[in-house]
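I am writing to request your help with a piece of structural work I have in hand. What I wish to show you is a protein chain and, alongside it, a tokenised description of its three-dimensional fold. Could you please explain, in whatever detail you think fit, how the structure tokens follow from the sequence? You will find the record immediately after this paragraph.
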Amino acid sequence: QGLEDKRPELLHIPGGDLSPLASRAFDVILAQSVFTHLPPDEIIAILQRLGPFLAPQGRFFASFSRTQEGIVRQQLHNWYYDLAFFETAAREASLNLQLLDGWVHPYGGFMPSFARSELALFTRG
């Protein structure tokens, strides 16, 4: 795709252990359909731990399933969040939050009627 000169890296971090990253800083971090399957405390921990790994102008993109009010757990592994949750979690992690318009999740057709997919952009506060 013409990115070879930028030397992109794709890193898989199993179990949330960020120690292999040492003191690196990233321009872009993506969590596609990760927050949709995590409970609130794990999302808060990720936001707090990722902040220091963002370069000064770095961006962290994360998709999530949004409800109008509250947090809903459906079945064992599907979580739905209202915007207030992410606003509070971002603020507590010293990150700015912006929702990106025009996001269409690849599996958006499988969302329950009470939710929709959103793409959040987190930047350093």
